[in-house]
Every structure is written in C-alpha cells, then in structure tokens.
Description:
By secondary structure, the chain is an alpha+beta fold. Helices cover 17% and strands 33% of the residues. Strand 6 (89-104) and strand 7 (112-126) form a beta hairpin. Helix 5 (326-338) runs parallel beside helix 6 and helix 7 runs parallel beside helix 8.
Amino acid sequence: MSGFDRISGDVRSAAQTAGLALALLLSSFAEAGAQGALSLSSPDERNVVTVGIVDGALVYAVERDQRKILLPSRLGFEFRNAVALADGLEIVSSEPHARDEVWEQPWGEMALVRDLHNELRVTARETAEPGREVAVVFRAYDDGIAFRYELPEQPGLGEFEIMDELTEFHLADDPRAWWIPANDPTHRYELLYRSSPASTIPEVHTPLTLETLDGPVIVIHEADLVDYAGMNLTGSWERRLSVTLPAWADGVKVRGRTPFVTPWRTIQMADRAADLVPSTLGLNLNPPNAIEDVSWIEPMKYVGIWWGMHINTVTWGSGPNHGATTENTTRMIDFAAENGFGGVLVEGWNVGWDGDWIANADLFSFTEPYPDFDLPALAAYANDRGVTLIGHNETSMGVTNYENQLDDAFALYESLGIRALKTGYVGDETAEGHAHHGQYMVRHWRRVIEAAARHGIMLNVHEPIKDTGERRTWPNMMTREGARGMEYNAWGREGGNPPEHHTILYFTRLISGPLDYTPGVFDILISSSDGAPREPEESRLRTTLAKQLALYVVLYSPLQMAADLPENYEGQPAFQFIRDVPVDWELSATLGGKIGDFVVVLRKDRDGPDWYLAAITDEEARSFDITLSFLPEGEDFVAEIYADGEGAHWLTNPLPVAISTQAVDAASTLTLQLAPGGGQAIRFRPAE
C-alpha cells in the first residue's frame, strides 16, 4: 500500500467518527466564575477550548485529556484614542462549523495534508455604548487549538490603531521553555536557544516550545500573518505569557480598518516532542494556493558563491578578491550541472557592496552588475546547462530603495530566466524607524512574495519575517533563514554552533517551516589560506562530517545548499549522498527525539521509491536500533550507510566517515552508532 493510500484510508476512517462537540463549563471556568461559557472539542475529543465571560471580559481556557493546559486567559485590544475593547462584554452569538478535507502540496515534507477540525465562532458585544462587536473564531484540531479575532464592519469601529493586543496564555504549569530573545538588535533570530522556566522568559520570538514535566509538549506560535505585526511573548511570575507586538516608528502596533482579521494564535500540543514534527497546523490555517500554475516551482539543491565570503577567501565588494566574477560563476555553473544541482547562488554580483553596505543601503542597485560580472551571458549559460542562477538581493533594510526597483529588477530576472532569488534584510529597523518584525515590514514581505509570483520567481528569504504557513497560499515562498545558521561556524563569537544546536532547532524553529541552514561543509576545521586548520577553540564546525550529511534529511528545506567550496568535495566519496538526497518528500516522520539531545528522522522520496533515514546527536555518543517496517513488505532494498568512522568525535576527530552497503527488507533492524557530535545518514534504494 502506498503512502497516499494509507493517508486516504485514515481520512475515510476518521471522517466516519469525527463530530462536533459543544459542552458546558470546564472546571477551571467554573472556578473563575465564567458566565455563558461554551466549549469546543477536537475531533478526537482530547483537546478542548472553552470561552466565556469573566467579570465582563472575554476569556478562554484549554485542556488536553482533561488536564488543564491554559487557565482562563484574557482576550482583547487597546486602541489609540479609543476605549479598549476588552471589558463590559457579553456573548451575543455562537456558530459551529466542521471540516474534513485533504489537500495536496506542490512540494513539502509530505504530499498530502489533512485538514480535520471543529470550529466555533463566538461574537461578543459591549453592553454600553458604542456597543462595538468582536468575534473570536476558535478551531480545535487533534494536534492543537487555534483562534483569531475578527472585527466586523460596524458604525462604532472604522479605522483604528492598535496599541496593544491583550491576548494572554495563562499557563497552568510552569514548563521548561526553549526560547530566543526578541529584542536583540544585532542578530534578530540568529541566536543560540536558551531554556528556563516559562515564567522567567523575557520578550521572546515564537514558535515558543514548552516542555511540561510529564507531558504534553506545547508550542505557541501564529499562522497566516498578512497585515499585522509579528507576535512576541513575554513571561511573568504568574505564568501569564502576554502578547507583545513590534511597533511602527510612532509607537502604533497595528493600523487597520474594519472589516479586519488578525493572524491565528496557535497552541500546538503533542504527547512527546517527536510528535510535533512535521507540523501541519499552521498550513491548514492559511488560505489555499493562490498560484494557478505551479509547474515552474521546483525544489532543488544548489551551490553558490557564498561560503568563501564568510571564510575570507573572496569578498562581496569589488576588487582583486571579488567573488562574483564571470570566471568564478562559470566554474560554479559547471560544477552544479555536473553534479545534478539545480541552481547557483551568486552574492555580491550587483553594485552597492563597496564600503559600508549596511550604512549605505540606499546605494544598492538590483539591476546593475559589477563590470566583472556578465549577467546576461551567465544567465544564458546557466540555462543552457539546465541550471538557474539564484540572484541575491541584499537590502540592508533599505526597504524604500528596494521597493522602488522591485518591478524593474524582477522583470529583468524573469527575462533572463532567473527562477530563484535570495533576499536579505540585515538590520534592526528601517531608516524611518519601523521595527524589523512589525506590520510595515510584514506588508513589505507580502508585496515581495506576490511580485515574485507574478514574475515566476521562487524565494529564499534571509533575516525574514517568521514562517506562519504562507507557503500554502504562495508556494513560491520556498524557504527562509530565521535562525543561527552555518555562517556562525566561520566567525561566531562562541566559536561556532554547539553540537546540540541542531537538535534544538528541530523542535523549535523547524516547527514553523523550512529552514535554509546551508549544510554540507566538509572542511570541518575551516583551513586558513596557508592550509593550517583552525584550533579547537576557534570558530569552526562543531559536528562530524557524517552529521553534515544527516542534516540534509533532518533540517528540512525545499531549497537545500551544498555550502562548501567545490574543491572541498573533490575526492570525497561522502559527497555522493548530497548528490542523491532529494528535497521533496511524500511522507515524513520523526521516529524519536529529545530537545537538545538527539533526533531520528525518516522521509520518503516523493519522486521515487527511495527512503531516507538520518539521526543526529549532541555532544554525547548514542546508539539506536531502528526496525525497517516502513519499507514495503516483500521487497528487497539496499541500505547505503554513511556513518561516523572509527574514533570520530566532533572536537578531536571530526572527519572519519564509514560508508557501507547492506541488504535489508521490512523485517530488518539496523543499529545506528553516533559519535559525540555526530550523525548518520542512510539511503534505502530498491535492490537491482
């Protein structure tokens, strides 16, 4: 039975038993003295959200398996030059709905996604003049709860300015939180994760992953962020996580006019961390695909003129060591074509990189190349060889300058057959003082995504707005950074990303969506120009070479880079795994994992019969016995195994890789041995 058949069978079976559950008060609401409370259950009845009025305020609470997850938590808004819409409310109507459908992704971690949920739309109205109304739409899924506000068109509320969103998440327990701060002006999302009791967290980014002592694991995030500020969360000793929003230059958080809807606030829940990923909650909360013809949207692996800039062998700016030259790019196109890669990223090709390119953001041209870079000829040569140039547009937060050139630049790229683009937004705020993650920038990103779609361009965004599932609506929004990536191994203050970093990313940042981490560096010790490797205390990769291979399976991205210099792949048998591994999947599953310790991931190639399995660990050596029951019964396979070699260790001996093959079938069991800071990657192909 194929993966598609199995999923379809599950859909039919569950559809027969799914029903809408509306009940009375939860015990926590009774304790709070709620009036007129309504409850909504997930189709499997494990997750329950209750909404009601407590002391004139609209509040909600969440339970899972009759265990309190969120105590009654406040909802509402504070406006500029208007009374807050939060108190003196009464529920005036409620309307239930249900949905069960399956939709197909053009690309993704899985081909088919099931949208099965129950919905309750609750409308509240002020009891005093002007009698404004607000609706809150709740959805209950088997993997979580979501809600959003709707402000209908009404006489008492037209144009408005939100100064604060009063939404809170009142935790019943004080779970362990995995977080990065939201107000670091230098690094945005590019920080190492920390953990602490949730009650002690400062203002942090979402997704925020929370581990309760004896389960479940909870992730608070948002979905369908279109015309609003990105949501941050701030803790308190009362265990109330409050929503904080980045501002416009004048302090306003959100500008709008009724009718108006906010992003969804999501509370994903799972019995264990391994059940969190892959996550489809955010995808289901976004509108369907808006691009009629998606045939031009193609997941791919790529190489590029990039890593050398971080290790100082070439420069972004013009001069004797300029990286983006016609000669260098031609060589990179040939390397991509010979190894089956679909794209070549070229950074530093355009005028504007000389001098302080952050201070001089308005000097960037997105159409004029440097004299030593023949853009039309290189684009044509790449197309002839079955490769696309991946353009690079670094804005340095000079957003007005970028938007003034956007249509001309994208039209040029389209005319040259450039089908993919990497954008960058280094900087904390715009020249006008608008926050990097505020509504102004959210609007800008949407304009760029839609413009790219009109011109047939796929996007890879660095220093991005967080992923909130918009790839469902705009599947040309392929991947993004939004995390501390590979380049920190070249110059990070802490000496590089620690061995546990990837095992944390998988259960935090990766829950929101694809990550362009840029794996595949084989020169683990980052040799200097004289050939001498860096010392252990210096910035360098803190993984084994086998773990670099495993990251292609673990850290999902539909655009996946082989980041190292081409010469570092020469004579390396392990490079074959990077050639073989797909970037588009029919099915994905997390076989095991613990945040900060290890991850084991299984994926099925969408375009062929192969399966891929990978495991990574932190600084501890680990061993796993994996049964291969996922393989089709009665069929023989060959396991191509790329494991840590004898004596491998991320710090002292990172390079040994043991490559072997083994005949296997669905009844087989494999033992995975991972070195400290190591990993293992396995391709399962049908036996010939």
